[in-house]
Task: inverse folding
């Protein structure tokens, strides 16, 4: 049946119902397979790496339909499972404190599952697990962040649309080995995409606009920002060292092949935030970061300057932190197409140009110190503060496809015996000494009772019953999983002192 | 033959023995060192900073002390012999029943002087890289001696501490056991022993920890809601009180009010060149925070709810007129609802774990009685020998 004909002849509610009926029966659920490349290709593309995960999901697929809670599926999911969210409205905060979960929206005829914060929910998606994929959502009207990672490694955040959502659109923090790609993020009062204290990161092919900052790489190392469309923000792409954080530096950042245009939006950042001091009309802003390469970007129509490079002393809102180096060193500016920047610049920029007896609209401004920095073909730009920088000695970064890890960051491998040992020392010894009375009976006594039967001991600790008149009842240790309970029972029966 | 301390005191004999076993959560090595072992050893952390999410390793803790040093430190910690007038011990302001703080806004010295700051709790203090509210000490050893000699705290002198210890019937022998390679008792041994004992105050088996290690049922709905407010980017608590220790160990200027009538405390920013840190204090760990009321560096807030509410009342609302502070960027106006503040308090109480509470000595090597504040009955656990 031709659906458009149906829509034309039916009442709107009926058409909606019919459409729903059709999609729910006729649409085939997506399959999750490895990427396949066009077979005619002989050389690797610059966009070669598509995944930081080793394997496709093998577990159960939990389908979530409109009217259900995504969190119910997350709670039921085991590592390796897929949570497949179908189009509909979901007003909830999704939190994933598990490993190996793929949270995957299903797009049906252009309709995405919509996470709707209704202006009162804090964050849309929080994860702390490793190997998390989040894809294909529309996220809007949350107060905090769209997608926030806290220490998960090997993450992929892609194909999401995030609109008018709080402080950060996408914010992986304290993780390593992650991809943020093909997202459209707008209307964010800090950074649309903010990589904080993370290593080995790839931010590519995103569109970010109408936000205070487009893409921010902060206190992070080994990051590539490429092929993004960054427009109509206050500042386009930032590479920062923010002092006062536990990880102290930003090193090895490549900003290449981005389209950074018309980032002239009035700053609407929160008072005191690091981005609140960015002058509207800044294309790229480097603050105290080291080893930053700026290559082959289109930098157009940013009214203050195309590129600003500053140390902490000249930046507003930065605190004092003796452990963080305030100077941006080894900044490497290769060829970039810069046009029509700096046409309505700030007074400080004009002063800087005047001190070098220059006039015109600045493409590049550097304030404060910088060591061992370089620039290719500087004559093409109107600049201040980079006149004494030598040429770079190289002209592209083509050999660096990405800074992602060759293999996923592996969890620390822990032998089963060690699990037993950690639990024994960390938990059991609080109440049981080897000899002599503590809160519970001595380990020697337990050993004599359970000598050849660790399973009985493992079962007992999950569900203890009071056995001894002269000792308090033992609390349940059922929060230890079965494997750990068995391991700790075996360990306890084997200790010698 | 080894005698117990009580018997030794009664017989006035020096043949007593310190514990030769490590405290719980420490493993004894053949070299007679106690090494920390916890369930967080399952995990890593970025650059080994010990900050992250649920399954993140701890920062490197202090360990490697001998069982005897730890046990000697325990006696010293509770012994008022270390104060000038023999009335105040470390434990007077760091009481086991108050999470090793004292339940007061401002602490009182041995001569009755009221100090300017609140005694911090000591659970997990061995993981901290900087000590004191303003972060001015870099090690437990450096920190340990300062309150002994501060006039408004224990008011002692190095000479008197050493003389009192040397003339005690039992301490010289205990120091010989703890420091067998040293020929005489010195202050660095006092500092080492106090550091050793404090490094043994481990609290890592709370309901939150059960959840973090993967037991989903450990937290109920309200507690989970509180956790999600805590780590949300609206409240932003976890940005500085970062798991697993619930501190990122940085200094932060947040602009809390002092108690009525008290002058503004510049904290770490106490000189013109440090003006950017004016009003800055160390981010405290929130482990066992349910035990350490009142809150903040000068104890202005009586409850966890009041402390949480501070962050929701607007950036700089309590900064005195005329003070120019560079407030931390995460201090903003999250507009938390009363329910969310309640949920935060509920969650913070899931960080309570006192299962590895050390034993308070029933008898002290000095023969002095335990300070009075430690012998008044209280309503929860804490055992004595």
Result:
């Amino acid at each position: 049946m031709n659906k458009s004909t149906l829509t034309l002849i039916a009442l709107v509610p009926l058409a909606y119902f019919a459409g729903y009926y059709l999609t729910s029966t006729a649409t085939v659920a997506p399959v999750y397979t490895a990427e396949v490349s066009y077979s005619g290709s002989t050389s690797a593309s610059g966009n070669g790496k598509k995944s930081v995960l080793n394997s496709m999901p093998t577990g159960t697929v939990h389908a979530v339909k409109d009217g259900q809670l995504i969190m119910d599926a997350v709670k039921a999911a085991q590592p390796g499972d897929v949570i497949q969210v179908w189009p509909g409205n979901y007003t909830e905060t999704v939190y994933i404190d598990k490993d190996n979960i793929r949270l995957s929206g299903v797009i049906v005829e252009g309709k995405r599952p919509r996470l709707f914060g209704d202006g009162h929910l804090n964050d849309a998606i929080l994860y702390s697990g490793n190997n998390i994929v989040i894809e294909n959502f529309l996220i809007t009207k949350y107060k905090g962040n769209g997608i926030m990672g806290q220490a998960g490694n090997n993450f992929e955040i892609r194909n999401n649309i995030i609109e008018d959502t709080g402080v950060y659109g996408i914010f992986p923090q304290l993780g390593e080995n992650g991809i943020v790609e093909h997202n459209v993020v707008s209307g964010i009062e800090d950074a649309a995409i903010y990589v904080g204290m993370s290593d080995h990161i790839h931010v590519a092919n995103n569109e970010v606009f109408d936000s205070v900052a487009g893409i921010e790489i902060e206190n992070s190392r080994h990051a590539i920002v490429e092929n993004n469309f960054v427009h109509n923000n206050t500042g386009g792409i930032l590479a920062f060292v923010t002092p006062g954080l536990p990880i102290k530096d930003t090193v090895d950042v490549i900003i290449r092949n981005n389209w950074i245009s018309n980032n002239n939006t009035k700053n609407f950042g929160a008072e005191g935030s690091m981005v609140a001091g960015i002058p509207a009309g800044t294309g790229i802003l480097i603050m105290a970061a080291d080893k930053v390469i700026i290559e082959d970007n289109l930098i157009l129509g940013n009214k203050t300057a195309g590129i600003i490079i500053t140390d902490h002393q000249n930046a507003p809102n930065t605190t004092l932190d003796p452990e963080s180096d305030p100077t941006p060193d080894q900044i490497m500016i290769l060829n970039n197409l810069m046009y029509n920047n700096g046409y309505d610049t700030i007074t400080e920029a004009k002063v800087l140009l005047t001190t070098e007896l220059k006039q015109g609209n600045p493409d590049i401004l550097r304030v404060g110190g910088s060591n061992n920095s370089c620039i290719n073909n500087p004559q093409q730009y109107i600049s201040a503060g980079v006149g004494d920088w030598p040429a770079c000695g190289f002209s592209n970064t083509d050999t660096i496809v990405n800074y992602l890890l060759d293999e996923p960051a592996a969890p620390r491998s822990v032998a089963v015996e060690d699990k037993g040992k950690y639990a024994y020392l960390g938990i059991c010894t609080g109440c049981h000494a080897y000899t002599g009375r503590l809160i519970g009976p001595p380990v020697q006594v337990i050993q004599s009772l359970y000598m050849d039967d660790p399973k009985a001991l493992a079962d007992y600790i999950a569900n203890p019953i009071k056995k001894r008149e002269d000792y308090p009842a033992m609390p349940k240790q059922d929060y230890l999983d079965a494997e750990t309970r068995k391991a700790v029972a075996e360990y306890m029966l084997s200790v010698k002192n | 033959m080894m005698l117990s301390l009580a018997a030794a005191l009664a017989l006035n004999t020096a043949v007593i023995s310190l514990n030769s076993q490590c405290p719980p959560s420490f493993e004894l090595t053949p070299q007679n060192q106690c090494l920390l072992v916890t369930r967080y050893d399952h995990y890593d952390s970025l650059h080994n900073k010990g900050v992250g999410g649920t399954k993140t390793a701890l920062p490197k803790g202090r360990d490697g002390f001998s069982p005897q040093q730890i046990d000697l430190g325990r006696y010293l910690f509770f012994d008022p012999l270390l104060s000038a007038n023999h009335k105040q011990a470390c434990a007077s302001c760091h009481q086991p029943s108050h999470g090793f703080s004292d339940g007061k806004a401002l602490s009182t010295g041995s001569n009755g002087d009221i100090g300017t700051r609140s005694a911090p709790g000591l659970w997990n203090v061995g993981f901290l890289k900087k000590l004191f509210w303003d972060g001015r000490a870099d090690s437990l050893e450096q920190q340990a001696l300062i309150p002994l000699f501060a006039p408004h705290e224990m008011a002692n002198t190095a000479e008197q501490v050493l003389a009192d210890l040397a003339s005690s019937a039992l301490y010289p022998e205990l120091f010989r056991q703890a420091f067998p390679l040293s020929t005489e008792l010195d202050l660095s041994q006092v500092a080492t022993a106090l550091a050793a004992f404090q490094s043994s105050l481990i609290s890592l088996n709370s309901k939150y920890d059960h959840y973090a290690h993967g037991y989903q049922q450990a937290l109920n709905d309200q507690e989970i809601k509180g956790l999600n407010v805590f780590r949300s980017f609206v409240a932003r608590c976890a940005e500085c009180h970062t798991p697993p220790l619930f501190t990122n160990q940085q200094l932060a200027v947040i602009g809390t009010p002092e108690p009525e009538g008290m002058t503004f405390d510049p904290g770490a920013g106490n000189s013109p060149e440090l003006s950017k840190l004016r009003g800055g204090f160390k981010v405290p760990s929130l482990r066992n925070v349910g035990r350490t009321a009142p809150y903040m560096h000068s104890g202005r807030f009586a409850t966890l709810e009041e402390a949480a509410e501070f962050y929701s009342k607007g950036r700089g609302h309590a900064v005195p007129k005329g003070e120019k502070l560079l407030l931390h960027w995460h201090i903003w106006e999250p507009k938390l609802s009363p329910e969310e503040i309640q949920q935060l308090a509920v969650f913070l109480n899931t960080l309570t774990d006192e299962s590895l509470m050390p034993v308070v000595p029933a008898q002290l090597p000095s023969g002095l009685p335990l300070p009075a504040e430690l012998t008044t009955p209280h309503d929860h656990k804490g055992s004595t020998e």
